[in-house]
Amino acid sequence: MADRGSGMEALTLPAEVREKLAELELELSEGDITQKGYEKKRAKLLARYVPRIQGVDPCLQGENRTPASSQPVAGVSKQQKSRSSNSRDERFRSDIHTEAVQAALAKYKERKMPMPSKRHSVLVQPSLETYTPPDTSSASEDEGSLRRQGRITSTPYQGHPGIDTWFNRVIQGSSTSSSASSTSSHPGGIISTASNTATSTTTAATSLLADLMAHTQLDNHSAPPDVTTGLSERPHHERAVVASVRGVPRGYNSKILETADGVPVHSRVSSKIQQLVNTLKRPKRPPLREFFVDDFEELLEGKLWSRSLKLAYTLQSKLTAKNEPLLKPGDRVALVFPNSDPVMFMVAFYGCLLVELVPVPIEVPLTRKDAGSQQIGFLLGSCGVTLALTTDVCQKGLPKSQSGEVITFKGWPRLTWFVTDGKHLAKPPKDWCPPVRDASNETAYIEYKTSKEGSTMGITVSHRSVLAQCLALTQACAYTEAETITNVLDFKRDVGLLHGVLTCVLNRMHVISIPYALMKVNPLSWIQKVHSYKARVAVVKSRDMHWSLLAQRDQRDVSLSSLRMLIVADGANPWSISSCDAFLNVFQSRGLKPEVICPCASSSEALTVAIRRPSDLSGPPPGKAVLSMNGLSFGVIRVDTEEKLSVLAVQDCGQVMPGDLVCVVRMEGTPYLCKTDEVGEICVHSNATGTSYFGLPGMTKTVFETVPVTASGAVIIDQPFTRTGLLGFIGPDNLVFVVGKMDGLMAVSGRRYNADDVVATALAVEPMKFVYRGRIAVFSVTVLHDERIVLVAEQRPDASEEDSFQWMSRVIQAIDSIHQVGVYCLALVPANTLPKAPLGGIHISETKQRFLDGALHPCNVLMCPHTCVTNLPKPRQKQPEVGPASMIVGNLVAGKRIAHASGRDVAQMEDNDQFLYLAEVLQWRAQTTPDHPLFLLVNAKGTVANTSTCSQLHKKAEKVAAALMERGRLNPGDHVALVYPPGIDLIATFYGCLYAGCVPITVRPPHPQNLTTTLPTVKMIVEVSKSSCILTSQAIMKLLKSKEATAAVDSKSWPTILDTAFSVILFFLHYIKKMSHAATSALCRSLKLQCELYPSRQIAVCLDPYCGLGFALWCLCSVYAGHQSILVPPLELESNVSLWLSAVSQFKVRVTFCSYSVMEICTKGLGSQTDMLKAKGINLSCVRTCMVVAEERPRISLTYSFSKIFKDLGLSPRAVNTTFGCRVNVAICLQGTSGPDPTTVFVDMRALRHDRVRLVERGSPHSLPLMESGKILPGVKVIIANPETKGPLGDSHLGEIWVSCPHNATGYYTVYGEESLHSDHFSARLSFGDTQTVWARTGYLGFLRRTELTDATGERHDALYVVGSLDETLELRGMRYHPIDIETSVIRAHKSIAECAVFTWTNLLVVVVELEGSEQEALDLVACVTNVVLEEHYLIVGVVVIVDPGVIPINSRGEKQRMHLRDGFLADQLDPIYVAYNM
């Protein structure tokens, strides 16, 4: 605010006004407010204080300010100034590229893309209370970047208006501060003194707040705080101002906050604050800057050796376990030091080297769930690390267990933590001296590296390599003794370690280390240090130069003329050229010479590969190449012009290191040498590289022992080369050019793309309003045998849904135009939620893993599989059918046995077979065995609620018949609807109708809590069946005439309603079938023979009695066969899950029937309670056959789980099997009590899509297990027919199951009298072969297979396998898909998917999934579902619908009603959480 508020003294304004002004500054700089709006709001804020501001007219405030703030800085080009308000990540800054992207987008016309539909609750941002102030992490993979450009003000904080209360709470609640290391002070920064007359109290308070903000990490979604440095009138009174804010991870102990260097401490207020306060209380002490510098120099020159010696002695002699030294030479030791403490790190590093221990530097773990922390633990474990060295402050801040010890982090070995501060070290005897040996090939240290896949490897560097590297750097950089070097990089690894810890000691140089935390607070700190100490060398990254550009206007009095080398450590990043150019453009007027900039290429494996030499070594001039991105994607170098849209400008990284030999080889396979115009991986032969991956000999041989060969296979040099992981080529003057890294390489459809290039393109599409601080991650995932590009960005909290979606669309268009590649998925996540690398950047491999695991929790997703998946198999072209004459010969069709089979013949007549009607059978039983019990009804308590003998049932039926004739005035043949809950009264009224000569129709009662849905279904069934009368209970009769029912259905439209007394249940009926008396008797006879049902037998039935086999078992079979049926209504299981199993055990039942829904309830509800059931005395060893009644493919996994769970209760695994029936025939297959066990085969799922059956071995790729659906019933014949041509098919074909038997249904009842439409279902004939037999078409696809087993007649057994419903199959890409196969894959895709159903809509595959979890996981499912369907079924999902549990309709047998779901989707009745259109 120094230039914006000229003439105004800051202290004349209250703190809240200054804070609001700071917010306005932030909004203006980030483009969230126009200049005019800024002027208006600022004038309004200052209106009350106008008299204090030297009498200036408020309306002129903006005019007075504008010229001052717009004074151009010398050397800043117009182009630079015009873009200074951009708010994108400057790692990838390129004006040429930005213009290219905008030009590419201009070619696209406005396209209307389908917006995803999101439920309102998902859109709502978290409340203010859930926010914590924001973090300042960045977008870079390894380091962060400040997002603010333009004016940097001197306000302490520019964030949330209510932040004062938060800080006050922290200050008031502060506990005893921990002691800080004397070397952890920040080396500088300038405090903005608004008035020379400020009191010491004010200064202390300001410093206290600033330091508090630096030492507190907050996690917010609002705008980030910005750099708070300003001009000072008195530069000699510099103090470290730290106004950056770092965050406490969610779920972290609120009492543990981080210091600015990223180390947590237990006190809420850092020890640095106390140190500052004490300094201010004693003004006679030296200023903080001088104190820090003096101490720093003293440590480096005087104490490094003595401290290292002390530590070495302590490690060797004082650390013992069971009177033996804890460590032996060659043991590995972890070094856990914060980035703000280089001196303590150097002490530990050299202390280990002195006693031949191998240091393994790692990052400070802050929580159990740090990104990549588990992989670091695996590395420590494989290295055999048992001891970790750290500082006192760091150790106090690590998470502790209840006993006070440092917790064992996930995946980490158990470590002993040792503090290296002076008070913990023993003084060595005067005669003690560490062993000094020549440099050898023994390991000196291990540097960790994270691979593209996320695994962490340890790279060993030998003593000889360290010495060779230091000597090579000394020669290449012309280092001399007592030179000053400023190091901004991480000193624990890579270039920062090589220059700032190793080479500097060899040459006795002065090192100024700038911690990452200070750089976030004061981006100019490294430039100020260069200026202050006349540093000759600075080691930085592109990020640091950009940060300086953001703040450079506030510091006009710096000079960089002393620099002879500005080493850019990430010169291997192709986009570093733009940072170097921009930095030179601004700072050339401040003494920076163009030849000073020295890009450097390095890697963890090869250490320094190449570096541009300083000007005094008279190296070749810098090189620049403008390359075609299209050519690079094919691995060739094509020079292009900057006017083209898709070009990449790269700078050289200098020449190779002294004594090194460099070549370029093919990226994959045999290391053939590349041609001069090919891009390949750079390999180095040198004594100064890493030596191996620790414990990974195979990978070591591949990377560290590569032997390049010519195209003819001849070896170039019989010496091993090291692969650097850098992609590039050798240019003129032997200059090394790097165009990417192997870790960022994405190979899509045979072309290669660099992740950084894609990030740059995305950042050029106006990210200001949408992307939070430019944080974008790009990686590839393998789906369907190819890599797919995924782009994940953090979304600003104030970005609207529609705007973000439009930005996503534009990004996809830009990438398609610039790179000619499609983006598979683009996801936006809330701000500050992506996993962070140690220095604040995005942890790419962890982000990728979260994406694959469905744990990214995005708030916006755009999937584009249609455009980028180009390797799908060709659609199937159906061939014309071969004529019948050439197909069928005898029992062979197309060379295969005709697929037909039949059950055994119906046996001789029995006593009750003389009766044609079931009513006559009941009358006969009432006369011959009146007291024989037929039915026994069990209630929810497990007690017998009702029983019925033959005579009791007969008498009840007679009463009902009399009531129908007298009260209902019905005639024989009239239809009567029976609306009853499951019970004996339903059976009695059924036989009463038969006695009266009426036709009974069993109807499920409406549900009292859901009348609007269930009552119209009842009404529809009554109308379709043309019922003249309704029989029901008194309670249901009241329900039908209630106000709620009248609102749903007109009560006057009901036919005559006769009441008795019963209760309520919910379900609905599909079809109303007609069955004759003869068919009913034939069905009962077949069931009696198959299940060996006799009057002495008992069976337990846990099915609904309204249709299908459940109706036959409840109402028909007991009367016909005379056995006793124990009836268990499935609804009762909701209140007593073990009811069915208890009844089976109690009555020692041998045969029982259930549905899949009942089996699922028992499996889920009783899976963990088998011990309790056993204690209750439940024993299932009596069960000989447990049959699951279904109209679908057998669910193998459910039946297997049921058998496995209840095996402990005595249930035989052979007992559980399935039945098959359908609309035209309720019982086609049923296992029964005799015959061979059901068989299971494995078929090729891909062949099934072509209607072919190919058997494969278990566990084969694409294998699908299918279980036999039971034995074919006596009197039943089955054939497999082509559903289109109606011709018979062979054994190897999948076709429609046709059935011929006496108990087939005869037709449907319909409202409009269109029975002729369905006649084809009940009286179909084959088009050739046996054309005389009348068949009923089941509407189900399946196949027959003759097995090696024999049946009761001694013949080989024919097994029928049901695959799925013909009506529900999906015709996609010319192939036939079965919904259950896709649904099985989808349910496996994510733990939060409870249920799934699929259908087609306008040739698009629609997947509906039920979310079992929080709504923030909803969008995770979109990518998971798309991936798994593409991978396993070669299908692109068109629409993904996320709904609440229970939305997918399921009938009483547990079967999904996919067509009902489709109707609900098209009518927009699902109330989805999220609908994603993968367009």
Write up this protein.
- The chain has 1479 residues and is α/β, with parallel strands linked by helices.
- It has an eight-stranded mixed β-sheet with strand order 37-36-44-43-45-46-47-48, sandwiched between helices. It has a seven-stranded mixed β-sheet with strand order 13-12-14-15-16-17-20, with helices on both faces.
- Helix 8 packs antiparallel against helix 9, helix 18 runs parallel beside helix 19 and helix 32 packs across helix 33 (1108-1121).
- It is elongated and about 120 Å long.
- The two termini are 48 Å apart.
- The relative contact order is 0.06.
- Residues 1-11, 52-88, 123-274, 279-301 and 1061-1071 have low confidence and may be disordered.
Any descriptors?
1479 residues; eight-stranded mixed sheet; 42 helices; 21% strand
Number of strands: 61
Strand order, largest beta sheet: 37-36-44-43-45-46-47-48
Q: Number of helix segments?
A: 42
Identify low-pLDDT runs: 1-11, 52-88, 123-274, 279-301, 1061-1071
The proportion of residues forming helix, as a percent range, comes to 25-40%
Distance between the termini: 48 Å
Query: How large is the radius of gyration?
Result: 41 Å
Per the principal axes of the C-alpha atoms, what is the gross shape?
elongated
Strand content: 15-25%
Profile the largest sheet.
8 strands, mixed
Summarize model confidence as the mean pLDDT.
78
Structural class: alpha/beta
